[in-house]
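Please produce the structure of this protein holding coenzyme A.
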Amino acid sequence: MDIRLIDPADRDALRQVHELFELIRATETPELASVAEQQYARSLEHPPPDSECRCYTAVEDGAVLGLMWLYLPFKENAHYAEVELAVHPAHRRRGVGTALHDRLLELARDEARSELVVMARAAVEGGPSRPDTGAKFLEKRGFTAALNEIDRSLRLADIDPEVEERLWQEAVAAAEDYELVSWIGRCPEEYLEGLGRIDSMIFAEIPLGDVDLRPRTVDAAFIRTREDRAEANGNAMIRTIAVTKGGKEVVANTLIYAHEGQADVDQAITIVDPAHRGHRLGLLVKLANLRELREHFGHVTTVWTGNADDNANMVAINDLLGYRPVDARVSYKRRLES
Ligand SMILES: CC(C)(COP(=O)(O)OP(=O)(O)OC[C@H]1O[C@@H](n2cnc3c(N)ncnc32)[C@H](O)[C@@H]1OP(=O)(O)O)[C@@H](O)C(=O)NCCC(=O)NCCS
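Below is the modeled complex.
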């Protein structure tokens, strides 16, 4: 068995990667949205700003037995590496996972990473069952659960229009000193600095459990690179911000990513500046962004979101909107000597 680094131009190898991820999704987490085949090549070719994505496969006689997908930031979080590791269900318990894990430790050392995070799925109360093979495998290898993020989904057809209207009116009344601006695609020049300022707060403000991710600076260049990447990857960015009336200071921000040809979309960050909390701005920007989504992306059926289990404020807003828990994405971490 060889462990190989995938060349993003090798479409045949990436087709096999897609097939393996899709097989595991369909058998172990069928409620989750599938990922389109072309997204894998695009993610390798256009990673998030200041980072690299890599895919390694474990191959025997031309067949992919297992794989790992790595995310390596290079700037503020150059000590960190995040990984998805998976083995074909028909080839488990014969050392493939261990071989990939051992290669991962070598790679982490080569790249001077001291914080290694591997993801595993877990069941949540009221949700479908999930295998615990990943958790057991990682715990035996010195990893501990460091962050528990609950994935929730919202079917747009299930939103009660009367409830939505009542929430909208309440939020508008509580936020009378603010106004909303929505757009799809690139940030207008006039909000670039303000968006960068509020997005720079993200890693300092969201609960991250015991995961050591440090605040990063989001400047105009970062925002433009992220937009270039979304366009190259066929992802539409649907954004609503709240600004102070008159002053136009950006004080709240929410973002949904829609993927070309897909009915499932991803709710990304929602953040309200700590100096402007308590005015229902989190609920207001999310409601406004859902309106944008429905107006411009009529084929979309479902929105997905993930929040740390102790992020009470965001979870309360999602409950009001009708999101329901599906499962958990657990970050298992291991510290390495650097
Ligand atoms: C977790 C996962 C990657 C493990 O892959 P795997 O190829 O089965 O891993 P290995 O075969 O190296 O090790 C699994 C167990 O089989 C045992 N094993 C290895 N070779 C064996 C053999 N020939 N006969 C019997 N058992 C064997 C190992 O000792 C290990 O047991 P341990 O964890 O108690 O030490 C796999 O179950 C998987 O893909 N799960 C779904 C994805 C997932 O959860 N990923 C996130 C976490 S990694």
